[in-house]
Design a protein that fits this description.
With 561 residues, the protein is of the alpha/beta class. Helix 4 crosses helix 11. It starts with 5 loop residues before the first strand and ends in a 6-residue tail after the last strand.
Amino acid sequence: MAKEKLSIISLGGRGEVGNNMIILENKDDIIILDAGILFPNDDQYGIDLIIPDISYLLDKKQKIRGIILSHGHEDHIGAIPYLLEIINPPLYGSDLTLGLVENKLKDAGLLAQANLNVITASQERRRLKLNSFELEFCYVNHSIPACVAMGIHTPVGLIVYTGDYKFDQTPLNSPQTDYQQLADWGKEGVLALLGDSTNSEREGHTLSEYIVARNLEDSFRLIEERIIIATFSSNISRIQQIIKAGVKAKRKVAINGRSMFNTIEIAAKLGYIQIPPGMLITLEQAKKMDPGKVILLMTGSQGEYSASLSRMARGEHRDISIIPGDTVFLSSSPIPGNEKAIGETINLLYARGARVIYNGMLDLHASGHACQEEIKMMINLTRPKFLIPVHGEFRHLYHHAQLGRQVGIAVENIFIAQNGDRLLLTEDKAEIVEQVHSGQMYIEGNQLSDTGAVVLNDRKRLSENGFVNIIIAVNNRGDFISQPKLVSRGFVYNKESEQLLIAARELIVKTLKDLDNKKIIDYSLIKKKIIATLNKFFYEKTKRSPLILIEMLEIRETLYV
């Protein structure tokens, strides 16, 4: 009898921080673990969001039993509204996770077609049967409540997926990680552990939320003027700490930012944030109060251009301005790539008279991800046969693998797989057997975009080198009837570089004559030849390569008799 086989494939989340999506597939069934987004790089011009390419799943829709969500952060749920327009399996998650998903689906007009199912890690309702897969759930600590790890019983064995986690001994608004359940899975026998790698480079343990809460309370009591604090809208644990610190400092809290307000509203409705009556005020009320009695809570801790704090720093917020003497807290760690934007925001805040407290000056942020000692503990609790690092750039996966070796997992049983790798498991063997199609899909203006690498490269060239637009007039017989017209933008200033453009025009005329002599009338070939000639010419003269656009303008000639 043939052995049962299970494929584990990441369509996103390996080699990158975000876009998390893992596929578990056997001959009859598929389940999807998380469906997140990735924010674009600086050179991905015009792209708002990135989601995993799910082309691999399109001809397998009938096998998909559900998408199971570990928690409510954007890098794990953000792709749901876009995927539901392509595939529409049932969705499973904790009450808070699905509350945040529901809000996204309402905005997208997709709530009516969604099949939402609440899961829980409580003892009496912790199992979920999805055909050949049976899942049970275990609460873990993170920077948002209601996060779960998953024990997935498959025909080949038990697979444990940690989701995002840390081991916080003093969590503030959620129970401790369920160590007993993790250990029970380990005793049962874990075939493979899919473990979060985000903080695998960092030694020791992650800072406890209790320390952050204490520092916020102490700081708020010492400040006499207005307090402004920026954090992630999804960091519900931090928001709760800010509200508690505000109560102790006898200050009211005004919220700015739609995403922040929506998250707080959902979390409060489900009981994950406790807000005393009268604690929250509007911005209009805050402006009329003594600044020393106010806390402004908003987004912008990563220097995001359109976030509330960034607009205040530039003096462009329509409702609030920085007041000299304000104290601004940035309660988050910089996401790699955001350091420049954060630095610019801090400089602008200082220039407007604010005092800024940010990363490294005070323990105002605790990561939601396990550091090295916690990762070792997760491996020791679950004792997997195979270790499969997930969630992170290659270096994070690599360091996670090294931690696995340190606690005794054989090197041949550790797999640093990339997006698209099919890791095939039986009850006693694992190997990467092939690459399936994976990649990225782009979101522009809340819509799936067909923008590809060529378009992105054109946008990059436009931003760096500008463009030259060339109009060539021809008659209905294909004869060139006037001098080409050149217009440049962002490349060279026309008046100062008139001779450059004149020389370029002469090159075009010469090229056209050569092609005419060779009886070449194919417009696409003519354009390619001109572009190649000008690319070489412009680079030799300016060391720049503008985007060259050519329009063949056909003017029909009419004969009068």
